[in-house]
Design brief:
With 156 residues, the protein is an alpha/beta fold. It contains three helices and seven strands, in the order βαββββααββ. The protein has two domains: 107 residues, no CATH class; 43 residues, no CATH class.
């Protein structure tokens, strides 16, 4: 059956899509997901998707979208969260810069340091992408597949 996600053996995803979806969930109430659309086959691709407010009405026990049959997988399932530091806030970056005795605080230096902190955080997320992901197919049914990461930022 082409609409059965248990046909999937491996899932390709870009590091940039996982990082973008994970970051959006850290910075805002947006609930970006990685979507896998039927028909399902052995090797599939998960892509960044913004389901908008519709995601709020989905079944919390399943990653399957009842309307389209697509898998809508939260980005946190693609990463090992314990190895990811907290998302850097501008206030924390400012405090660290002000505490640095070798640097004078300027608005431009603060902006540069914050950009660097966010980039380091993004690389940590890309490095934390797991080799597998588990889908929820119902209240008590899960299904695990291999993840193939494309374009891992720290390896470029």
């Amino acid at each position: 059956m082409a609409d059965d996600p248990r046909r999937i053996r491996s899932l390709a995803v870009t590091a940039a899509d996982v990082v973008s979806a994970y970051e959006a969930r850290q910075r805002s109430p947006r609930l970006l997901v990685l979507r896998v659309t039927p028909p399902f086959s052995g090797r599939m691709r998960a892509r960044l998707h913004d389901p908008g407010p519709a995601v709020a009405g989905t079944d919390p026990q399943s990653d399957l979208d009842a309307e389209t049959g697509a898998l809508l997988v939260p980005p946190r399932r693609f990463v090992s969260e314990e190895s990811i530091p907290e998302y850097p806030s501008p206030d924390e970056t400012e405090d660290a810069l002000r505490e640095d005795p070798d640097e004078e605080f300027t608005v431009e230096r603060h902006r540069e340091r914050h950009v660097e902190a966010v980039e380091a955080w993004r690389e940590a997320v890309a490095d934390a992408i797991s080799g597998s992901v588990e889908f929820r197919l119902g209240e008590s049914e899960t299904y695990r597949v291999e993840v193939k990461t494309l374009g891992k930022s720290s390896e470029e």
